[in-house]
Amino acid sequence: MDSPAKRASLKTLPLRYRIYQKERHPLWMAVPMAAAISYSGVTFSAIMAHRAPPGLAVYLIAFVVTLCFHLQRRIADDLRNVRFDRKYQPNRPIPRGLVSPNELRLLFAALLPLQALLSMTVHIRMFGPLLITTVFLMLLTMGVGPLRWNSLNPLFYLFFHRLAAPLTVFCISALEWLPRTGHPHPTLFFLLTVSFLNSFALEIGRNFDLPGEGVPESRSYAKFWGPRKAAVIWWMMINLAAMFSSLTRVIRGAPVDGMLVLLAGVVVTGVFAYRVAATLNPKTASRLAALSSLWTITMFLTLVLG
What we know:
Elements: H1 4-11, H2 13-24, H3 27-48, H4 56-80, H5 82-88, H6 101-122, H7 127-142, H8 154-162, H9 164-180, H10 188-206, H11 221-225, H12 227-252, H13 257-279, H14 282-286, H15 288-302
Helix pairs in contact: 3-4, 3-9, 3-15, 4-6, 4-7, 4-9, 7-9, 9-10, 10-12, 10-15, 12-13, 12-15, 13-15
């Protein structure tokens, strides 16, 4: 029989999951991002193949699956960093006892049948792309080899972790092309490249604690490269993503309006990067994460709108 303490723990599990989600995966940030990425992934595949977009149900499934992927990536981060957090970040959910590693593994696993059932209502072969992406995310939870921040070099970590972004987009786009032709349009390569390049800006912007701020051993590109160099690299990755986005729009035959939006975004982020490099203000640096998310949403939408 279960002990009273264990029964009480199970009874409060949904509430603790909710608190965890609010702290580590706030919906006000996650929902717009997942909506933009899922909409772009499905619509881009249809536009480039000169097909009509699928029905609303496919877009809703793509959104839910993308949102689950993003939560699983957050869980993977927390499981991989549990030893570090227990030593240096005692206020994180696992060290302070809000949830246990096994409870997070349970949440990760509980999302899998939901993703599988929804995806396979579109086409049974969706199991393949879903499996590839899920296996990669599960490897992230282990933090082995180049997937661990300090095992080789942060650059290896940065590169391999960014593969999760194009894998997610590939899986989402398959909801459109798999039932119709069974294979993606060749131009999907450009969307995957844009998502890969842009994910570097997202990662750097989300981990930009200035030297002297936060935990000294934390994953911070401002500490690894120096704040000025990190700000320049962050902006360079935005420029690369913008250039590939513009090239994709040219291939699509889209009007120049979207490129003007991208150009405005590059200018705004450039001014912000300059402010970070010039002032080294912690408040300014902390806004890089929100600006990176806003840029990502804008960029993905410009790929398919207009």
